[in-house]
Amino acid sequence: MRAKFSYALMGALVVLAVPSAEAKSESAGKAMERAIAAPHRGPANRLRDQYRHPAQTLAFFGVKPGHNVVELWPGAGWYTEILAPYLAERGDLTVATPLERTEGTRKLLSSDASLYGRVKLATFPMKEGGTAVAPGSMDVVLTFRNVHNWRFGGKDSAQEAFNQIYAMLKPGGVLGVVEHRLPEEMDSALEEKSGYMKRSTIVAFATKAGFKLKAESQINANLKDTHDWPNGVWTLPPVYRLGDVDREKYAAIGESDRMTLKFVKPKR
């Protein structure tokens, strides 16, 4: 009887000593909630949460504490201000920006050492004189509404961009893409001027680079967006390129309809 009791007690101790996957997930979720609710985020950025769904989007891409993450072309740092504290204790965040925009990004990172002090700065696309992301070093690469910039105005640097992203990632690493969605039945020429991209176009670039489409989500979809605005996607908030013309109409529509695509670099 004593031996049976000892074995049972040992089993209970083992169960207590090993955190469940659910507990780990809850811990990551709470860390994300804290980062999103942190006081450094201003009211204007918080207002956009309803359109950008940061917690759901980053969870869909599988971003976790302890990951090495690259955010491409962070702009004013909307996602950076969430990712930086989320990855501060475990993991690393690198923001990668065009060489000619480095100083603007450096200014953002130097604006708050307590928030951005551990964030690294790299060059994307990589050019001579820039700082490269080490090949095969990243768990996740994220790009939010940037692919159209690589395809915009008749220039097509998109394929080279996807090739460079592929090189950054470890085998099994994830590329998360959020982009303004152009319906497949609409004219592909709109990709060069509207800011919208077709899903098939992005999948083709990623596939040619070597990625596999793992999953996709409608987290950031907007059925009110008809994709045919006079000044492209910038007609809608937050840009409101038409100024006060029909502003209430566009405010009621909200931000653009977006696809959310998760690609994986195959394990060799």
Can you put this structure into words, describing what you see?
39% of the residues lie in helices and 18% in strands. It has 12 helices and 7 strands. It is α/β, with parallel strands linked by helices and 268 residues long. The model is unreliable at 1-23 (pLDDT under 50). It has helices at residues 2-17, 21-37, 43-47, 49-52, 54-61, 80-86, 102-110, 113-116, 147-151, 158-168, 199-209, 247-253, and strands spanning 68-72, 92-97, 120-123, 138-144, 169-180, 212-217, 258-264. The chain is globular, with a radius of gyration of 21 Å. Helix 2 packs across helix 6 and helix 10 (158-168) crosses helix 11 (199-209).
Quick recap of the structure?
The protein is 39% helix and 18% strand. It has twelve helices and seven strands.
Strands of the widest sheet, in order across it, are 3-2-1-4-5-7-6
Number of helices: 12
Structural class: alpha/beta
Helix content: 25-40%
Beta strand %:
15-25%
Q: Please, what is the oligomeric state?
A: single chain
Distance between the termini: 52 Å
Report on the biggest sheet: 7 strands, mixed
Choose one word for the global shape: globular
The overall pLDDT, averaged over residues, is 90
